[in-house]
Write a structure and sequence with these properties.
The chain has helices at 42-45, 53-75, 94-111, 120-131, 171-181, 188-196, 221-236, 243-268, 284-297, 306-309, 314-325, and strands at residues 11-16, 21-28, 32-40, 84-90, 115-119, 139-144, 149-156, 159-165, 273-277, 300-302. By secondary structure, it is α/β, with parallel strands linked by helices. The longest helix is centred in the last third of the chain and has 26 residues, at 243-268. The protein is globular, with a radius of gyration of 20 Å. Bound molecules: 5'-O-[(R)-(carboxyoxy)(hydroxy)phosphoryl]adenosine and zinc ion (ZN).
Length: 344
């Protein structure tokens, strides 16, 4: 199908259910968010210390219709007003993704609207378009979330070149695991962020991993293990330790690597526009660290509001709009792809 680029206003319904948030949004022209409804499952999953996939799928089923109805009513729209139905189809938890994909396919079929499958990470990156109306590609984007750590050049709308990714844990995963080790509970990122403000970031020297021959790749399992070893060592020697110092020193180690790799890529590829995205982009240390590094070099720095950094459907509507404009359409055979890759 050829893209319909003649209309001035393209309105999409976007659905996101890749992990533990059931979300729907109405977005006009990729940047104007008319509604953004999120039903979070965090209260249930925190009882188990992390996301339990089967529970996530069941909760998505319970909530999805209600969340979609709320998104339409808050935007004062109906299915008939939509130009496309956009849905995250990967990467993520397969059972969770299937709920959103199933709902989107049913709406697309019943309302006779085009279906656009959206890549979750493209969604995270596109949150920047909502928060920064002036932002246009090309730019360099660091995506750091619970499941992903990517350094990506956004060549054009919908065109991505992945420079680096994590070899093991994602940055957010490391935050969550360290938080669990110091007894903060799930999700750990925001709690470490808060506790770090009370600690000394210079107190403990945790490792900053570099991968030979892959300067833009990340590895966070080493710093996570170093924190666990430090805590075990203190316990064995029956020495007191400061959770706040651990949080501050760990956060500093992770933020330094994220900022340094991004700055190296910006220099090597001569890109002066930098953006961050994903749940870890809420982190105050990363927001400040990246801003300072960009300011020192005269680069423009873009970031979404914290609500648009963590999983939401407005970002899927932003990415889906540009996919729609690029002529991307999916059939009713669209399936969830848990390991969907970016830029391949
Ligand atoms: O993007 P997101 O909502 O979900 C995924 O696609 O993974 O990211 C969630 C991750 C979690 O690991 C959470 O701990 C982390 O983002 N996170 C943070 C902060 N807020 C959320 N990490 C560090 N500092 C924060 N303030
Ligand atoms: Zn996400």
């Amino acid at each position: 199908m050829r893209p319909d680029n003649s209309k001035e206003e393209i309105t999409v319904l976007a659905i996101e259910s890749s992990c533990d948030e059931t979300a729907a949004a109405v977005v006009v022209n990729g940047r104007d968010v008319r509604s953004n409804i999120i039903a979070s499952q965090i209260d249930i999953h925190k009882l188990y210390g992390g996301v339990v996939p089967e529970i996530a799928s069941r909760k998505h089923i319970e909530k999805i219709n209600q969340v979609i109805a709320e998104a339409l009513s808050a935007a004062d729209k109906t299915f008939a007003d939509m130009d496309a139905i956009c849905v995250t189809y990967g990467p993520g938890l397969v059972g969770a993704l299937l709920v959103g994909v199933g709902a989107a396919k049913a709406i697309s079929y019943a309302a006779g609207k085009p279906l656009v499958g959206v890549h979750h990470i493209e969604g995270h990156i596109s949150a920047n378009y909502i928060a920064n109306p002036e932002l246009q590609p090309p730019f360099l984007c660091l995506v750091a979330s619970g499941g992903h750590s990517h350094l990506v050049i956004v060549r054009d709308y919908g065109q991505y070149e992945v420079l680096g990714r994590t070899r093991d844990d994602a940055a957010g995963e490391a935050f969550d695991k360290v938080a669990r080790a110091i007894g903060l509970g799930y999700p750990g990122g925001p709690k470490i962020d808060r506790l770090a403000k009370e600690g000394n970031p210079e107190a403990i020297e945790f490792p900053r991993a570099a991968i030979e021959g892959a300067p833009y790749d990340f590895s966070f399992s080493g710093v996570k293990s170093a924190v666990l070893n430090y805590i075990n060592g203190c316990r064995m020697k029956q020495e007191a330790y400061s959770e706040a110092d651990i949080a501050a020193s760990f956060q500093k180690a992770v933020v330094e690597v994220l900022v340094d790799h991004t700055m190296l890529a910006a220099e090597d590829y001569h890109i002066q526009k930098i953006a961050i995205a994903g749940g870890v982009a809420c982190n105050s240390g990363l927001r400040e660290g990246m801003r300072a590094a960009c300011e020192a070099r005269g680069y423009d720095f873009y970031l979404p509001t914290p609500e648009l950094c963590t999983d939401n459907a407005a970002m899927i509507g932003a990415a889906g709009y540009y996919d729609y404009r690029n002529g991307i359409r999916h059939g009713l055979d669209l399936n969830a792809v848990p390991g969907l890759k970016l830029g391949e």
